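Archive maintenance. Older records in this collection stored only the sequence; we are now back-filling the structure field for every entry so that each record is complete. The fields below show one back-filled record exactly as it appears after the update. Entries are processed alphabetically, and TetR family transcriptional regulator is next in the queue.

ARCHIVE ENTRY
Title: TetR family transcriptional regulator
Organism field: Myxococcus stipitatus
Length field: 229
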Amino acid sequence: MARREKSPVGKLPSAKPREGTAVHAKGHERVERILDAAMDVLVEDGYAGLSLRGVAQRAGLSLGNLQYYFPTKQDVVRALLSRYLEGTIRRVRERMEAGAREPARRLRQALDSILEDQDSPRHFQLFAELWALAARDAMVADALRVFYGGYREGLVELLQEAMPELTPARRERRAALLMAFFEGLSLFRGGGSLASASVPGVEQELRALWDEFAEGSAEGLSPRRRAPT
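Back-filled structure field:
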């Protein structure tokens, strides 16, 4: 059976079947089933319990069928991260496009979407498992490194849409800071073991700080507050 080529190290594969085949629609449905099954196994049994055979069984496919799309366990993990990133950026953009045109309001919509995404215990458990493994598993570390590179690029694009007056260098720096902030915040949300340490009302305070950040950004290029480059 023909196999799909492995993605090179340092690049997340798209969570989609190959274009231009007669089974493209069926392939897309199978890929989604595979990734849903892999997510279930990771959340329930951890990375140590993840195997291609177990995922295939849960997805109702043969092992050979699964390996046509994902030859290795590493390919499955990379595709899971790719699907999560694509979905997150898409949801944020949809919220921004549905809101007002003012930069501050658009960024508030982006924040609300990110906070809603963090409320998912399954997503938190997925990343908690991968974070713990990254220190001793080079493949997981590489997949997360690429994931966060894509995450930062997505934030850069969102900042460019909402605040085109910022220089490219400032967008890069702000995107990196925002990514670190959101990931740190996620430790205290989403049903993790540290959630009980969170302070009531922190989301409301965060929204107030976010509004100040957005308004300050809009004023940052005024003659009286010249922004660094």
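Update note: The radius of gyration is 20 Å. Residues 81-219 form a domain with the Tetracycline Repressor; domain 2 fold (CATH 1.10.357.10).
Entry marked complete.
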